[in-house]
Amino acid sequence: MSAPMNTGTRPFILVAASDANRDVLYEEFAARYGRDYQLRVVPSDDAVAATAAIIGGGDELALAVAELYGDLSAAAAVVDEITELCTTCRRLAVYDWRVLAEAAAVSRDLIADSRIDSVQLIPRGPRDEEFHSEVSGLLSDWGWTVAVPEAPVAKVVAEPNDPAAAGIRDYLERMGMPHTVYSPPPRSGDASSR
Question: Is the pTM of this model over 0.70?
């Protein structure tokens, strides 16, 4: 596992949305995830530049949310450009119920081509547990596959490709135990320590 890019900062959630839904999406994400994540909500036209600024600043992008609206192929292209800049972030497409038929067809293709990880309707009520369950699942997946644990249960010190260490890591991962892996320091007298 590699070290975090910018320790001490919270990872980002980036939301690219239409004018009509930007405030709704901001409120949904800020209320649920504002403590643990930095939130940036931008017009879709600014999403690629915002992603570049996040990554260029040494921060981590955990989740990119793109609203499918207007020219749906252009909205899908925004997701592709974000993915080129940040291959590790999870990608969620959202859409308003008014464009359900068109967006459902486009999102089906996006998922089939692995261009997005999930799709959800934009929440319309006071609580939308299905929406937030999906967002939480994507953030959890990102955390397990990318982020370095903030409080590891174990620290494994081993040479690269050590079969015993691989078995220990496999066990820790199957048990859901956060851990980190380190290379051992050079031994005194080794050619590498001179």
Answer: yes
